[in-house]
Amino acid sequence: MLDVCVIGAGWAGLTAAAQLKSAGLEVLVVEKARGPGGRCSTRRQAGFAFDHGAQYFTARSPDFKLAVESWQRLGLVAAWEPTLTVFGDRPARAGVAPNARLVAQPGMNAVLKHVGAGLDCRFSSRVEQLVRQRGGWSIQLEPSETLLHARVMLMTAPPWQAAQLLRGQSDLAERVAAVPMNPSWALMLGYDQPIDSGFDAAFDNEGPLAWLARNSSKPGRSGEAWLVHADARWSTRYLETSAEHAAGVLLSAFHKRVPAAAAQTPSLISAHRWRYALAPEPLELDYLQDAEAGLVLAGDWCAGNRIEGAWTSGRAAAMQIVQWLT
Ligand SMILES: Cc1cc2nc3c(=O)[nH]c(=O)nc-3n(C[C@H](O)[C@H](O)[C@H](O)COP(=O)(O)OP(=O)(O)OC[C@H]3O[C@@H](n4cnc5c(N)ncnc54)[C@H](O)[C@@H]3O)c2cc1C
User: Fold this and answer.
1) Are 94 and 128 in the same domain?
2) 42 Cα to the center of ligand 1, angstroms
3) Residue 38 Cα to ligand 1 middle (Å)
4) I want to staple 25 with a disulfide (CB 3.0 to 4.6 A). Which of 3, 163, 249, 323 is the partner?
């Protein structure tokens, strides 16, 4: 019997798991992907690397700033100061100082790799079924068909996925299912030659793109790798389209913004759909709990829809669980 089973090895899950472990609890993290990161992952393909989810983060609360400083000292985090432009009318993201955009290096998952290295994590394991039992939970994993038992469960999957697993097991399922998440199509482009774009990153307020970035302009990266995100409107409308179709449309939109790129055929072109990318209306609660069931839910969709929110949520959830179990 584990003390805590954490579902998800993103910012919320790993932050919580590290804290639970340091409180002396027996914790296992279960993650369906092959490694840590969740929506803050790095895709390596054909010699290129792309942060195809989260692009950078900011640190606002004193506690998160302290944590970030410790990662900076380890060389895991650095400031990214791109040459930035904005397409469309709205002003550039106001209030972000040029050196306040932070990235993990050499990829956005670097901090989570570091945190996860000290933890008991089971990757490539999808939680298929949860059953609430007297004194805890039984957790069915696929493809191994392993059955785990834990006194408390910390769920950090995006809300719709969490709700599917919790249906019939906790009254929180309905509430969680109602938390909206916007999708985002991402396009990854690798080039053999540098592209004279005139900028490293751009907010696009006219659509169908929302964001363009020369991924390789971030510290610790190399090559000529570009990452493009479609906006929520286009991504929602074309949620079920094929990756080939999405790649074709987004490449044309990219060429309009970066005409110099049209002179080269990308040596890598790959589209990825984030079905649950960003929470437009996070709950503004640190976490949700069902004390009777021994269940806590955490993630960016609770405490603010960004990396700092996921960290804050995971940390607060862990404190609650420590209070229950110790
Ligand atoms: C396209 C995009 C751009 C973004 N840009 C930024 C940005 O610039 N700045 C910023 O701060 N934030 C950004 N974000 C948001 C940021 O990525 C998230 O806020 C943060 O990573 C969320 O962390 P989390 O731990 O809450 O959730 P997640 O990272 O989603 O972690 C949940 C984990 O649970 C796992 N999981 C789900 N179901 C199961 C299951 N059944 N069994 C096992 N494991 C399961 C998932 O695989 C995932 O790894 C962006 C996100 C996206 C998608």
Assistant:
1) no
2) 12
3) 4
4) 3
